[in-house]
Sequence to fold (211 residues):
Amino acid sequence: MPDAVHSTSIDPAEDEEHPTGRAASEAALEQAALALLKENGALAGLNLREVADRAGVNRGLVYHYYGTRQDLLHAALKRDLGARLAEIGEGGSLDFPKRARQLLRTLTGHEDAIQLATLLLLDKDTPVTLMPLLEDWRKNIERDRKKGRLKEGFDEEAMVMLITCLAYGFVLFRSQLARETGTPLPDLDWRIDEALGLLVDGLAPALGTSQ
Fold:
């Protein structure tokens, strides 16, 4: 059921006259939504009134800006996406095995966003892109092949999908895995990074090592 926040009056026309103020309010609302999800858990739901109060924003602006809870969450995910793409893009010059490990490290640093993307995919048919840089990956793989850094004859798209699934799955379950194994999170991250390295280094053409 939608949260009853419509009773707080706003003047949309006046709000649109201050785009800088709107941008700041949107950023605060999206950050507050992610923080509340992290604190309360996904099953507790997301109360838009609480989001507005946490952000210090007029409650009526939540619906004025977003319309629905899903739209707010999607906007929060989109905001985080820019930071993730920038980090992943910085590894464009790396060969495929090293870039795969960099992907895992980047997603581990964006745990809240990965959880949110999963929630949106499970909630409904939401257009969430899991591999926004797929074409870039393809070009880099082709570059590595031409330079003799990768074996021939493997499905590069399937490999990127597999590594994406491995990275998403680890980020989603890493805290629980750490608890079940009694492993401190930094140690667990290092072990999984090393295990992924062994997997992807096998794609190199000579002696199972990257060039």
About this structure: The chain has a mean pLDDT of 79.
